Amino acid sequence: MTSLRELLRVGPAVDLKDIDPGSTPGLPGRKVTGKDQKGWAREQLASMAPELARQQEMLYAGAKASGDRRRLLLVLQAMDCGGKDGTIKKVAGAMNPLGLHIVGFGAPTEEELRHDFLWRIRRALPPAGLVGVFNRSHYEDVLIARVESLVPERVWRSRYWQINGFERDLINDGLTPVKVMLHISYDEQRQRLMERLTDPTKHWKYNPADVDARARWTDYQAAYNDALSRCSTDHSPWYVVPADRKWYRDWAVANIVLEALTEMRLSYPRSDFDLDAERRRLEADRTPTMAS
Amino acid sequence: MTSLRELLRVGPAVDLKDIDPGSTPGLPGRKVTGKDQKGWAREQLASMAPELARQQEMLYAGAKASGDRRRLLLVLQAMDCGGKDGTIKKVAGAMNPLGLHIVGFGAPTEEELRHDFLWRIRRALPPAGLVGVFNRSHYEDVLIARVESLVPERVWRSRYWQINGFERDLINDGLTPVKVMLHISYDEQRQRLMERLTDPTKHWKYNPADVDARARWTDYQAAYNDALSRCSTDHSPWYVVPADRKWYRDWAVANIVLEALTEMRLSYPRSDFDLDAERRRLEADRTPTMAS
Questions:
Q1: Contact between A268 and B204 using a beta-carbon 8 Å cutoff
Q2: How does pLDDT run across B4-24, given as a tens digit for each residue?
Q3: Residue A204, φ and ψ in degrees, nearest 5
Q4: Residue A176: HSE in the Cβ half-sphere, 13 Å Cα cutoff
Q5: Using one digit for the tens of pLDDT, what is the confidence trace for B218-241?
Q6: Contact B204/A64, CB-based, under 8 Å?
Q7: What domains can you pick out in chain A, each with its CATH number?
Q8: If you measure CA to CA, which chain A residue comes closest to B62?
Q9: Where are the alpha helices (DSSP H) in A16-152?
Q10: What is the torsion angle, in degrees rounded to the nearest 10, for the CA atoms of residue A114, residue A120, residue A121 and residue A124?
Q11: Would you say residue A218 has pLDDT above 70?
């Protein structure tokens, strides 16, 4: 079976217009009804959870016991309502919270603005052994920064190659980037915004500024096309996940992450102490003694 | 029904010797067999998960939408193998990872040692709206620091009241501390260490230094008795959870956290924008336009 990453990976001339946000590439059983596909995808996600957690534990154990510097970083980008939070809840939620390092990026603070755009990113990278998740990322600096003209064009234009160099350095230091763009349609965004207005337990998620950003939809799609085209490199590819169907999105992202972890060929570290000697020490030691 | 917090809370003259690590206080149906109790507790934990997640979401929403500064901090302390990691996996694992802020404390770094003992703790506090978890905490500074004589006695003695003042300040700033000591027996610790030696997927958790610390068991229990007695205050009580039975431990900690969240009387924030006006804006806006 072709890996899902191969199917969803984008190349140097990607145009989001060519990717249907409602499609479900790689999902077996396309001939069954939509409802059955959804049930199947949800079941598959649940049955993947133990393996995701096991891979994550091996990654963690390697860093803890034998100084393995490897770590994984899931980078999530999307338009508003694209489902970043929901994906984190479902995919990262299947893992052990002790081994997660989740960071969200909003508008930069004054202090962050006094540094180069990668400064706050470097500080937020997952330590060895952890699975990091970026809820938005350094890609905002070639998306909103470009669309809203927060910096001059020559500045954001120079960032594509800066990002590529930065990610290459991270890989050389043992980090595996998994960059996922959750691709929703203009109409699906409207429906999700409307839902936030309708359900009182979702009002807090609604931000009138999101509708202002929506007015610049076409500009954002163009900025995404450039970011994906220029920064989907051999060493650090981008995956575009059609995300109008939440059950497909969660299934796909979990699969992509699991494929990346599996490719790392992780294993539980061997002990560097004498197992028998330790067993004897423990056997001998059955009653607490007063040490002082 | 008496709250579990009332049952497990300890007072100013606690002695761990008086608390049976194998007991299951507050668990209904004590007359059924151990196996049935375990199944019941596991089921209860699973059925509590949605309510834990809902409370956590309301806490998060309040900070995000209306500047509510409240947050909760679960402080976990235990002897080695006491089950801190397992508790986090089960209890925090029932929540949304986006709303968690988990920090583990090991031996202080050189930089940390150049500051007062609460410096690294302050930097690790959960931001408004989050559920923080401390895997070990500032209490190590009156436990290992005392037992291993890392600082002179006058120094660790002065820390009890410093901790009480520190926690009072946190509460005044909107933080709800939930301090839980997982109480295991000397024999249970031996069995768990042995299991780590036997199961190759657990070797990485085994540290020969844990057996050295085990030789000072009685000193540690005395240090715990003092820390619990002096720092279980009206505003910031300590709960001792018998932890030889993992299923009781997880059930009890989840209950304590849920009780604390419920007592905060959280609710979803009201919107501060005009719902109808926003709906009209969205309805009008069905096709992406070129903004530039």
A1: yes
A2: 999 999 999 999 999 999 999
A3: -65, -20
A4: 19
A5: 999 999 999 999 999 999 999 999
A6: yes
A7: 4-283 (3.40.50.300)
A8: A204
A9: 34-66, 84-91, 110-113, 119-123, 144-147
A10: 170
A11: yes
